[in-house]
């Protein structure tokens, strides 16, 4: 759950709050816990998800604690430009209530946040308990009635900082992509060309999505610096069919498992009899997971993978395929930054309400470090 999932039913005062975007929500019974995959928006992920442990309803309480923190002061409890450092903060529960913003927040509000942001999910406050917390059920006497104008200003600054990061990423990635496309399609690629102005993007909750280029037909192509941010953008678009959103999201989870070198998570998303054509197999049809396990177990480092222009085709109610370009950044043996590109198609089948990858086809040079 993130702030973008919370909507007001209308602009009227005291409008009902609606919870939106159940694209890949997991329905759990009682206190059921299991590993459902690595999914969510980075700043709102709970420690147990980052540790790849079994999780359940407490992950939503953690996310609500992050949202409550933001709504009170206008900035998040966990923040770092480096996503790895951000995850370390979350796993350690490293947040505080700095002055001067928190000086006017009641102790009851801070207490509720502390209980919601408890690292151990077994000790984290439940939804039922949170509703009985004094800050909630006795808000007329406990909650501060002051207008938090400074919080509004902090929110504006925080959003402005994120948008600035997006703009900087646009400029860099646009130039790199333009250079690549010119070398592929233009006989004059050795000449210097000025990149066209970057198109305007809708505001994002996480600043990792960048426009690569605008093809002749005007279709926007996005390079996804972070799989979760891409899912967020796609889920927020009303133009994408809900089931197509599911396919995009589950594909992002699969790529995330590859990025993390997590074979266990990868194997759960794939059918045990997965078939594939890929450059590493030298033209042979590969069946099963052992071939892929070798690359997971022997990869030397994690390299960023980016998606370009995913297209989803629905095949009935329980099948679909997605085609996209994967751009992989890596450092070669001489320490020079390089990129490799592959064109991929994945076929998905839904079994027992779960999507599984049953086949994929990859063309291009062998990727670094693995498929």
UniProtKB/TrEMBL annotation:
Keyword terms:
Kinase, Phosphoprotein, Serine/threonine-protein kinase, Transferase
Tree of life domain: Eukaryota
Specify whether Flavoprotein is a keyword of the entry. Answer: no
Which one of the record's GO molecular function terms can you name?
A: ATP binding
Q: Which Gene3D superfamilies has this protein been placed in? A: 3.10.450.50, 6.10.140.620, Transferase(Phosphotransferase) domain 1
Which residue numbers delimit the Protein kinase domain?
A: 1-136
Where along the sequence do coiled-coil regions lie? none
A Pfam family cross-referenced in the UniProt record is CaMKII_AD
Keyword Protein biosynthesis in the entry? The reply is no
Q: Which InterPro entries match?
A: Ca/CaM-dep_prot_kinase-assoc (IPR013543), Kinase-like_dom_sf (IPR011009), NTF2-like_dom_sf (IPR032710), Prot_kinase_dom (IPR000719)
Q: Which SUPFAM superfamilies match?
A: NTF2-like, Protein kinase-like (PK-like)
Q: What is the designated name of this protein? A: Protein kinase domain-containing protein
According to its UniProt entry, this protein's organism is Neogobius melanostomus (round goby)
